[in-house]
Amino acid sequence: MGLTDLTITQAHQGLVKKEFSALELCKAYLDKIKERDREIFAFLTVVENLALSQAKEVDDLISAGEKIPILAGIPSAIKDVILIEGIRCTAGSKILENYVAPYDATVIKKLKGEKAVFLGKTNLDEFAMGASTEHSAFGPTRNPRDLTRVPGGSSGGSAAAVAAQECIYALGSDTGGSIRQPASFCGVVGLKPTYGAVSRYGLIAFASSLDQIGPITKNVEDCKIVFDAIKGKDEMDSTSIDLNSKFQNPNYKQIPNSKFQIRNLRLGVPKEYFVKGLDPGIEKLVKAAIKKYEEMGAKIEEVSLPHTEYALPAYYIINPSEASANLARYDGIKFGYSVAKPQTNTDTLLDVYLKSRGQGFGQEVRRRIMLGTYSLSAGYYEAYYLKAQKVRTLVKNDFEKVFKEVDAILGPVSPILPFKIGEKVGDPLSMYLVDVYTVAINLVGVPALSLPCGKVGQLPVGLQIIGKPFEEDIILEIGEKFEQTCQK
């Protein structure tokens, strides 16, 4: 087994036993990036000097006999929408092409506290708007499992980097499936935490009531380790909560690993998730995974989420509306790409704004800004945005009702397999439909895990495990039990 094959736990044990150094581990991943990333393009920025200096710091601690945290010296990749002080952060957009982060995101501060090693920043759909990582201003990322296909999006660079063994783990962000869908397409594990479980401070905002940072890893155990490191209350993010506080989190309960039993669980399968449009190969594998849980002793119950069909249209009104407000700050004056000065004698300040934004934003971002601005405009607010928020409440009520009957929900991550690069770029509606099983989770704010459950040919398929608010530990345990069963 090579150094780039290791999981977090294996790499940590190797470092502690001095089987290899943190520098050797770091260099192995930097070499892998140099070897493979030309064809995959998972990274927008590689910070070799920073990574090597962080690795050396961990080696010095080990040499001094210090006890190191489990993430110390572990090479990671960060989606280029999360700020690392002093490092370029583009959000996959020309408008931020030369923007250098002035401070660390809270999750980065937490990882620095754990002595993590940052290899670089990963590619994404511009401002995290997309399901394929083809909407990056710097070019598409390719799926390591099949270079002719997309890795999913918007955290496609992070998922591809983990799948190609260019890092041990990565951070992504999930607004409507942007961690889970690329994890499914690339055959790795991805967790979208409960809204508020992880601080969003230092995450470039897309849709503030939907965005959430989460880990992408090689297995479920690693996912648990990274989530434990980044979760928790942050005074810089008023929506964040302390997961271990019964006052802030009424659902809080610790389940010792030894006492967790699948046979004690009721798992729901929504009938609305297995309808026309779901790829037969995906349906077969997901149903086989559900069957395995039944064989492990879980009680499988068919449930109904009747407003599922309305979640996608509601999401694609709320999402662009919040985006249009958040992206208003990129005016070409304060920071970011700018035409710099009026180009003609008749140009006004407004012309500078319009030309800077028109040239700095890509097509998909401009489309969503226009959709959102229209939905929020006078005369249309009640017809679109307000109605979408009422639908959101109905979708939330569906989940609350089902969670009174079951402990978690099982289903597919995506209705289709990874598609060819260029196949859907010209058809936005077709691209949006890829999110049909993931957007409701963001509207409701509950946690969900994507983990591999098999392949159709060489193409990975993900199983989605949806949990109650702040019950990440439960869905991670459910996922780990499936993983262990498949390895036997």
UniProtKB/TrEMBL annotation:
User: Which EC number(s) does UniProt give?
Assistant: 6.3.5.7
Q: Which GO terms describe its molecular function?
A: ATP binding; glutaminyl-tRNA synthase (glutamine-hydrolyzing) activity; transferase activity
Kindly list the GO CC terms recorded for this protein. glutamyl-tRNA(Gln) amidotransferase complex
Q: Does the keyword Iron apply?
A: no
Query: Which leading EC class covers this enzyme?
Result: ligase
Task: Spell out the SUPFAM superfamilies in the cross-references.
Answer: Amidase signature (AS) enzymes
What is the reaction catalyzed?
L-glutamyl-tRNA(Gln) + L-glutamine + ATP + H2O = L-glutaminyl-tRNA(Gln) + L-glutamate + ADP + phosphate + H(+)
**What's one Pfam family the UniProt record gives for this protein?**
Amidase
Where would you find the membrane-spanning parts of this chain? none
User: Which UniProt key words apply to this protein?
Assistant: ATP-binding, Ligase, Nucleotide-binding, Protein biosynthesis, Transferase
Biological process, per Gene Ontology: translation
- Annotated catalytic residues: K79 (charge relay system), S154 (charge relay system), S178 (acyl-ester intermediate)
Q: Which residues form the signal peptide?
A: none
Record's InterPro entries?
A: Amidase, Amidase_CS, Amidase_dom, AS_sf, GatA
All copies of the Amidase domain together span 24-475
- Could you give the subunit structure recorded for this chain? Heterotrimer of A, B and C subunits.
Function comment: Allows the formation of correctly charged Gln-tRNA(Gln) through the transamidation of misacylated Glu-tRNA(Gln) in organisms which lack glutaminyl-tRNA synthetase. The reaction takes place in the presence of glutamine and ATP through an activated gamma-phospho-Glu-tRNA(Gln).
Record's family? Belongs to the amidase family. GatA subfamily.
Please name the NCBIfam families in this protein's record: gatA
UniProt name for this protein: Glutamyl-tRNA(Gln) amidotransferase subunit A
Can you name the source organism?
A: Candidatus Nealsonbacteria bacterium CG11_big_fil_rev_8_21_14_0_20_39_9
